[in-house]
Amino acid sequence: MHCEFQDLDDALMDRIVCGVRDIRLQRRLLARPDLTLQKAIEEAVALEAAERSAQEIRKASSPRLARKPVPVHHEEASSDEAFSSEDDDVHQTKRERRKFQQKSKGQSECAGCRGNHSRAKCQFRDAICRKCSRRGHITKVCQSAPSDTSPTTRKSKSSLQSAKESCFALTNCYCPSGTRIGQTDSPTRRKLNVTVLIEGAPCDMEIDSRSALSIVSWSTIKRLVPQVSKRQLDSHRVHLRDYQGNDIPVVGIGRFQIAFKDFSGLLRLVVVEDQQPSLLGLDWFDALSLEVTGINCISNTETEGLVKDFAEVLTAL
């Protein structure tokens, strides 16, 4: 007695195609556009018989080379999880069969978008590729070699080269193996100084975005806070070098009351032994609301123009 499961033969056929262990048989079944349950069984039985005969011939000619026959359409399922996995495989098998059937019917793939339609009916036949700038296809099907210098990139590079803006060398900061501080002798560099209050005493500090830490000398901190002693400073775990590679002795690290504009609070300050200028480094930037401008300005004018000109193409993507 059969249940009311529709297309029982198709379901059984998909189970057979999905469950065969012989990849050659599975490919043959998938390649047949007119596959039915009966034909699938005949193919499986025929290949199994051929495999068994070949095994017997090899066993008779050379017993050492005999192998155990492997059933080609054996299927096991011991749990609901196994059935769920088989259902996924069945759906995948159906999709693969549709692909083979479409190819067997001579339906070609569109060269402009890889869709299942003719080239003349493609909606992207007048589109301009964003990779090679040629008309007639979209980026995902473009076969042109990647170019290192696109027109937009070349234009951006030329505009950057023509700009006369000084940039801070942030990549020269490193810690804790060696935090570089100090200044270079660049004639184009303009010093920026601000006055902050350290424990209520004004201190003129140079803003140095190339220094990862804020630094003052021992003589400066002693002048600003006479009651401080070296024993009150924490033991240092940083190694400082100037831009000539010379080591800078560190006395210690302390937390001092800092006031600047609307900010007032405790900030870390590195105290050094030598007569070094007072530097306001990157570690204070967030607290004091300082920003580096002039190196991260990106104009969207050109991009917005392209989006506006090719709105129809970009919307379709």
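the 2nd protein, sequnce then structure:
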Amino acid sequence: MEKSLKEWIDLQLRKNSAATTSSIKQKAIKIFQDIKEAFPSYENITFSASSGWFENFKRREGLHNIKFTGEAASGDHVAARDFPNELNRIIKEGEYLPCQIFNIDETCLYWKRMPKRIYVSLEEKSVSGFKPIKNKVTLTLGSNSTGDYKLKPMLINAFETPRALKGHNKNDLKVIWRSSKKSYMTKYIFREYFKNEL
């Protein structure tokens, strides 16, 4: 069983896929179940892919855990520090009421993102050829500062009509559906959202 499992881990690495603790344990249980079905004499043997078994398996097969390094975050710290004062000045000069002040933010879900750590053979010091997967959707949320008016959420996908929504009216969704090439918020999409929602 462990030989098949090690081959599967090596295959995952060649396919630029991840072999995490969870996926290795799940695959071990699946391989064991397949063996039990093929050999009825094994029916009374149990296997749970415990943490103890996993630690011993890693040692026997020479596996170690490596961490992916992501892209470095960047930001304008000076502008971020000065922004609250600038915002207060704009609010005072414009004589805006709290109900007229909105906070709109976006968050991304990278639904195909690789885990930060995977298991590889001891010979592998690093993993080359792995490109960060950027498949994502962007969700935009907002409300006014008093909290009594919430904007309808907007979801931005790379595809205008993904396969899962074929035949469905996107206007019936609980979100405003938009698309852009890399699921980014564009100036055009934001202007349209601002004009139609506020």
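The helical segments are 2-14, 21-38, 51-61, 77-94, 187-197. The two ends are 61 Å apart (CA to CA).
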